[in-house]
Specification:
Number of helices: 2
Largest sheet: 7 strands, antiparallel
Length: 113
């Protein structure tokens, strides 16, 4: 998917407007709750060096979040055992505050309940 300037994206967690990190990169942060939305192409760069990113399914612990890009329900998954939410249509992934950093480090953390 191509990311472009368009309408502001709402945070799937708290509804506030997401702020872009850089105009050319598909990555946004919520200044309110601290979550991060990462585009599909950017995900490989963010959390994997030479290996493919593996999105493991996990049981949802709350109702699905809506994708900020298309509005579809996101699916609960885990990356390096770090909980996340993924949109099947747009391939973007939502991380709660601090979880993108944990996924980058590949730390094995227990999944929050």
């Amino acid at each position: 998917m191509t990311y472009r300037q368009g309408p502001p994206l709402p945070c799937p967690h708290c509804g506030m407007q997401l702020a872009a990190f850089e105009e050319a990169r598909p990555k946004w942060r919520c200044r309110s709750c601290g979550g991060t939305l990462v585009g599909g192409e950017e995900l490989q760069f963010e959390v994997a060096s030479a290996t493919a990113v593996e999105l493991a399914p996990r049981m949802p612990i709350r109702p699905p979040l809506a994708c900020p890009i298309c509005g579809d329900p996101m699916i609960a998954c885990a990356i390096h055992e770090v909980p996340a939410e993924r949109c099947e249509r747009d391939r973007c992934v939502w991380f709660e505050r601090g979880d993108l950093g944990r996924a980058r480090r590949g730390l094995v953390q227990p999944i929050r309940t």
